[in-house]
Amino acid sequence: MLGRGASAVARALLPVLVVVGVIVVLWYAAAMMMNRAWTLDQIERRGLEMTATEIVVDTLIQERPVLPAPHQVVGELWATTMGEPILRERRGEYRPNPRSLFFHAWQTLAPTMLGFAIGTLAGILLAVGIVHNRAMDLSVMPWAIASQTIPILAIAPMIIVVLNSIGLEGLIPKSLISAYLSFFPVVVGMVKGLRSPGAMDLDLLRTYSASGTETFWKLRLPASVPFLFASLKVGIAAALVGTIVAELPTGARFGLGARLLTGSYYGQTIQIWSALFMAAICAAALVGILGLIERLVLKRMGFAR
Please, what is the end-to-end C-alpha distance for the chain in angstroms? Predict the structure, then answer.
């Protein structure tokens, strides 16, 4: 049994490892090609003589490369996470360490979670209204679709300025921009889910003289749960993107968006890529947690998975 289990795990991991290996090889090749110009320029300026092997090695160890090599990004991730304490002592007090990438990730995750909660609640309420009220169906849904055609990079600074003018700064503006991106997938998924029960199911409840409220709680809402979780996975990723975008025009000092911005200011491409990878890790973790909750909830509700 143990041998079969190990074999099944190996079969499942092999395609993933092959894809990762191909990506890493292509990444190294791209790094060598894109960083080669700077190395050749330095050779010419300094009158150096280098072999082909030395040129290849130099393209992979540059301090500010055009495209950092994978080992440089991994090294930066390790140095700014495991190599830096989250808290450090300063003037007799323990304060968050701005050199820790975990600290910056938390600065981004906090408004992401709040914005995701706001967006999810707003999305569910709008979906319920759209399904049960024809006027809302005809009026709100087109506006919800139209709202997503506005580039977030254009609307984020306006939201920040307006909210700052009424005294709202810090967590709330970033959370609202995060909610703006996350509510739409929830609306679409919930509307689809609430309308998923068939005519025969609805007729059956009518024969039991079920009211609209009973139909909602006993048929429409349970039927919408699988659609809701699918939407939430999209919404949480969109919420994270919204928070990172919101950190750019606010001049935030902390957060993954701030790391991206400062990295672009000073040409620290390795810092930029490490922040991007941390954002991807956070998104994968959030989606994974939602997937685990989905599996538990659907199993308890009796949905076949």
Answer: 24
List Cβ<8 Å contacts ≥24 apart for 129-132: 130/187, 130/191, 131/191, 131/194, 131/195, 131/220, 132/212, 132/216
Structure tokens at 117: 């909660």
Residue from 187, 93, 100, 170 nearest 136 by CA: 187
Cα 238 → chain centroid: 6
Collapse the DSSP code of 176 into the 3-class scheme (helix H, G, I; strand E, B; otherwise coil) and give the result.
Answer: helix
3-class SS at 65?
coil
CA proximity to 279, closest of 238, 232, 234, 241: 241
Q: Residues 130, 188: contact at Cβ < 8 Å? A: no
pTM (2 decimals)?
A: 0.85
State the pLDDT at residue 96. 82
pLDDT averaged over every residue in the chain = 88
Please name the residues in contact with 134: beta carbons below 8 A apart, sequence gap of 6 or more: none
DSSP class of residue 94?
Answer: E
Contact 114, 102 (CB under 8 A): no
Residue 271, pLDDT score: 93
Q: Identify the helix (H) or strand (E) that includes residue 93.
A: strand 93-96
H helices present in the chain, as ranges: 2-46, 52-59, 70-81, 101-132, 134-147, 152-165, 171-194, 199-207, 212-215, 221-247, 256-265, 269-301
